[in-house]
Amino acid sequence: MSQGPPDLQSQLDVLAKAGPEGVVPAVDLILSEADWCGASDIHFQPSAWALEVRFRIDGVLRPAVTLPHDLAPNVVGRLKVMAELLTYRRDVPQEGSIRATGATAVDRRVSTFPTVHGENAVVRVFNPSAGHLSLGQLGLPTAVLSTLEGLLQERSGAVFLTGPSGSGKTTTIYACLRRLATDGDGRHIVTIEDPVERVLEGVSQSHARPGTEFDFARGLRSLLRQDPEVIMVGEVRDRETAAVAIEAALTGHLLFSTLHAGSACGVIGRLLEMGVEPYLLTGGVRGILNQRLLRRLCDACKQPEGDAWRAGGCGKCGGTGYQGRLLVAELLTPDAEFRRAVLRKADADELELVARQCGWVTIRDTAATAVAAGQTTSTEVDRVLGPPTGTRSTTPAKP
């Protein structure tokens, strides 16, 4: 019936026979199995015939188990109870959190969404250990790490992080804030987040609520009167937040934030689209970090293929050929030539060309290095970054 773990499926089949009475232990089993597998997300997706459960492991959704379709409302209802959502409202999307306690507790964010077959539910898992990684433990390329550590010494300016959801941006920002909070410099560090994912010692954290009187823009304006030296804004989503963030960066504050763009150079274009003037960007932006997580080849079964390696498949990696993930990144620090290109509103392609002419190493370059080192495959790089454009390739060059 399922392509997932046979032991778990057989246990759930037994519980399913008990009807609604078996739902609570069934949900507990699924959540425990997801934690054991290291899943970042758990998908509960009803179809016309069954409730399909899938785990996102190493960035890829994998079938886990299935349950009878008639139990789907009960399963989603149980998740709603755990997240303190309205169980009787099945016609609107809802969001909530399952807060756990204890040293190794795992926090989960629950999102429900009505569909023609019933409610979808997605549970995002927040690994407590990931929130405590140091900068050195992130696995950033050596040159990127060195430059980022230099940016942490700045007293003003904005450092933006970009990348898709689940690419580790928050983990990286938290590592930066933790470094700043423990370097003995005594700087006042404050954050505005949605939500606060991890509590950081020595950092004043607040939870913004978009759509209310305490959104990112209004919260940031008020925060500037709290005598901050380092500010983290969870995300720049709109014109007003962008304007206030750059204003803060230009008035003696070191600011960190995230912004959705396809590349480091693309962040400049997004800020221009939000109405930030080019001369403000050239003065305010200190660095832009673009990062992705690639699946790491399983050392137990990877196989040589020409000048690189290919994925095999064994019991250790669940037959996928990959185990764990590695971080690849590009860090752009604008120089004089790049700033001149920004002032004339050059597009992302031209900005990248200017940066590369000055020796900038792109994320695809660092990914190619990882392929050559046997850490991942060009197939995985293209899956995450998309096919290479022009003449660039992630296939390592022959000596």
From TrEMBL:
Signal sequence annotation: none
Biased composition (Polar residues): 390-399
Record region (Disordered): 374-399
Domain (Bacterial type II secretion system protein E) ranges: 22-383
Annotated InterPro entries: P-loop_NTPase, T2SS/T4SS_dom
A GO term from the CC aspect: plasma membrane
Keywords in alphabetical order: ATP-binding, Nucleotide-binding
Superkingdom of origin organism: Bacteria
Any single Pfam family the record assigns to this protein: T2SSE
GO molecular function: ATP binding; ATP hydrolysis activity
Cross-referenced Gene3D superfamilies: 3.30.450.90, P-loop containing nucleotide triphosphate hydrolases
PANTHER family: COMG OPERON PROTEIN 1 (PTHR30258:SF2), TYPE II SECRETION SYSTEM PROTEIN GSPE-RELATED (PTHR30258)
Protein family (similarity comment): Belongs to the GSP E family.
Entry protein name: Twitching motility protein PilT
Organism lineage: Bacteria, Pseudomonadati, Planctomycetota, Planctomycetia, Gemmatales
